[in-house]
Design a protein that fits this description.
- The structure is a single chain.
- With about 200 residues, the protein is an alpha/beta fold.
- It has one domain: Zn-dependent exopeptidases (Aminopeptidase, 3-Layer(aba) Sandwich), CATH 3.40.630.40.
- It has seven helices and six strands, in the order βαβαββαβααβαα.
- The protein is globular.
């Protein structure tokens, strides 16, 4: 197994938490700790950055090519959620491309492990029988570029060749959730690493 770890956004381009922490800066620390945890578990990983000179879709395609060339077998894109209209939005979620069963399974593994470690509820949404709350699909009826606002970063999951998910551990606009996440990079990284291990042990 070889894990692609993508740090979401570039510096000063993502969301900022209620305490002013940049999404890229926070997830860079999580990525570094995740790589260390995976190494301890005997799992190889590579950390990737988005090309700041490319528009979003082109950058995602480039990342997908790099990830395939490096022979990664699974991947994660690290983010946190933000709701600009207030502090009420809450919940963690792990997003996957709707047509990838293996990505769905990995998202479920991450949701279970994260839920075991953090006192944060899964984000409310439509769940189906037998599915795990907190694992949420990126689903479009058609691949329509005019619906970019509905894709929620789906390109990275769509273009990559291997099981791939987007990690959203909570809302940085929610004071309670951010209080649980802000300084707990280590615990977040551990939850992600255990999600990788659960997926590896159950499905690979």
């Amino acid at each position: 197994m070889k894990v692609a770890i993508v740090i979401g956004h570039n510096e000063n381009t993502g969301a900022r938490s209620v305490t002013g922490v940049d999404e890229w800066v926070w997830n860079r620390k999580v990525a570094q700790l995740l790589a260390v945890n995976l190494k301890r578990l005997g799992i190889e990983s590579v950390i990737y950055l988005r090309d700041p000179d490319l528009v979003y879709t082109a950058a995602m395609k480039k990342l997908a090519r790099q990830i395939k060339a490096d022979r990664c077998t699974v991947g994660v894109d690290l983010h946190f959620n933000y709701y600009k209209r207030g502090h009420s939005a809450n919940g963690f979620e792990f997003l996957y491309w709707w047509a990838s069963r293996s990505s769905r399974k990995m998202a479920q593994c991450f949701a279970k492990e994260f839920g075991n470690i953090f006192d944060i509820l899964p984000r409310k949404g439509r769940w189906f029988s037998g599915w795990v709350a907190g694992a949420k699909m990126l689903w479009l009826r058609s691949w329509n570029k005019r619906k970019a606002d509905q894709r929620r970063g789906a390109e990275i999951c769509y273009y990559t060749h291997c099981p791939f998910i987007i990690c959203e551990p909570g809302f940085a606009s929610n004071y309670d959730e951010w209080d649980k996440l802000e300084m707990n990079h280590k615990e977040v990284a551990e939850a992600y690493a255990m999600g990788v291990m659960r997926f590896k042990n159950l499905y690979l």
